[in-house]
Design brief:
eight-stranded mixed beta sheet
Length: 467
């Protein structure tokens, strides 16, 4: 059941989604009159890259070719220096993109009957591409599988609705709702504030149902026109795919109502930032039992080791949790965004929270990631931290019972500091992949150089006539 914007429960009839073969895909699309298909692959930023082709062409050759550079492109469309990252002989070579038919679904906002399917990237010799975000996550999951474990996650994604903004020099503003007025104050958990955009959220639910996506709850967050959508727990790769699709779905629905939806970490100066909280647990692959709880329902040593892994390794994956210069504007003192590695029971001021639950549902909520992050990489990096905590038998600190908002910073304060910590951590490179770490760090450094070419309003305000 999904909570609609009016707070009422309405059964969500999930359209058939995903097939197991090309033959089934043909029948699936024929039954829906599909004429076009969007062949997508998520890049390092979580942006959908790929090709749109007629369905007839797709079925004649379902394998798609894209250049290796698709995984080196920065958010501004530039590329880092390939030296030391890619063999010059293969720098411009094509990769083989093969469809994962389990992700096949419709594109409900398209004018013509259109389907979409997420692809996996392979080298021509059949090896998975180490830089592809889906492969990075798959590899981390495989490490859990080798230990007889199965990770389970549930993401929460915050975002803002804003007025259309075609000039980046102007600040963003909340949109006008059905009352004819924009929000001017904080409206946490307000049903009425969500109802201001009823028509938009009904479209989001309809689009989601058409794609077989399940929303658990929808709430209004603390900021003006800031919303949060929670997804139901499940397999990490499946949930990463859903976040990837949800982001696009929400943007498309908003555009249809002449509104922007943004997942920037800090889009409006005096409003809270937007997070992507990740709830995580680990179950036995053999028994399905949550390894974080013992037979008496008490937390196990594995649970505290999982927490400790996050405490030790989260600073070294901050460039994944907070991937852009803007991301660090969210992580400020005396805000609800975490600035340290404390953990606590139902303590939302800590970076790591243990929500109230039954022993079967015992889990850790990682509150550090921002909503601008790539969901595949965030989940992979967070699970990597927990995996290292488990395999190294780390010990967590005592839980924090007070307010963590004004404690010392434990996390990097900026992107370059975060990239340096990421590049220097050998244990994480072993889990995430050395080639991925090198490529991702190079892309982030290139993005920082692009940012440094822009003069900000703050500089013009305070330096123009005063220095």
């Amino acid at each position: 059941m999904a909570k609609r914007s009016k707070g009422a429960q309405k059964a969500q009839v999930t359209a058939p989604r995903g097939v197991t073969s090309l033959t089934e895909a043909k029948a699936w699309m024929a039954g829906r009159g599909i004429t076009e298909i969007e062949c997508t692959v998520p890049d390092l930023a979580g942006v959908a890259r790929g090709k749109i082709m007629p369905a007839s062409k797709f079925f004649s050759s379902p394998v798609m070719n894209l250049p290796l550079s698709v995984f080196f492109q920065t958010i501004s469309g530039e590329y880092p220096d390939y030296e030391g990252l890619v063999d010059s002989v293969v720098a411009d070579s094509d990769l083989v993109m093969e469809p994962d038919f389990s992700t096949l679904c419709s594109v409900p906002w398209a004018q013509d009957p259109t389907a979409q399917v997420i692809h996996d990237a392979y080298h021509r010799d059949g090896r998975p591409v180490e830089l592809a975000p889906r492969q990075v996550l798959r590899h981390v999951i495989s490490l859990y599988e080798k230990k007889g474990w199965k990770p389970v996650v549930a993401p929460e994604i915050e975002f803002y609705l804003v007025e259309p903004n075609t000039d980046p020099d102007y600040p963003l503003k909340p949109p006008v709702g059905r009352s004819g007025r924009p929000e001017i104050g904080r409206q946490s958990y307000s049903i009425q504030a969500v109802n201001e955009f009823d028509a938009l959220f009904e479209d989001i639910y309809d689009y989601s149902e058409a794609q077989g996506l399940e929303i658990d709850t929808l709430i209004h967050e603390d900021g003006a026109a800031q919303m949060e959508i929670n997804l139901r727990h499940g397999d990490p790769l499946t949930l990463a795919d859903q976040v990837f699709l949800f982001k696009r779905t929400i943007r498309e629905a908003a555009l249809a109502h002449k509104i922007y939806a943004t997942f920037m970490a800090k889009p409006i100066a005096n409003e809270p930032g937007s997070a992507m909280h990740i709830h995580q647990s680990v179950v036995s692959a053999q028994t399905g039992r949550n390894i974080f709880s013992d037979e008496d329902g008490d937390p196990t040593p594995e649970f505290f080791s999982f927490i400790a892994g996050h405490q030790k390794y989260l600073p070294s994956v901050m460039c994944i949790m907070a991937p852009y210069v803007n991301s660090y504007r969210r992580l400020t003192r005396d805000s609800m965004a975490p600035i340290n590695l404390q953990w606590g029971y139902d303590n939302r001021t800590a970076g790591l929270r243990v929500p109230p639950s039954t022993p079967e549902a015992r889990r850790l909520e990682n509150r550090v990631p921002s909503s601008d992050a790539n969901p595949y990489l965030v989940i992979a990096a967070s699970l990597a931290c927990g995996y290292l905590g488990l395999t190294e038998n780390l010990r967590a600190t005592d839980p924090l019972e007070g307010d963590a908002k004004n404690l010392d910073f434990d996390l990097p304060r900026g992107l370059l500091e975060a990239v340096a910590a990421f590049s220097d951590n050998e244990a994480l490179a072993e889990v995430l992949g050395h080639r991925f770490v090198a490529a991702y760090a190079a892309v982030k450094q290139a993005e920082f150089e692009t940012f440094m070419r822009v003069i900000s309003p703050w500089e013009r305000e305070y330096l123009l006539l005063n220095v």
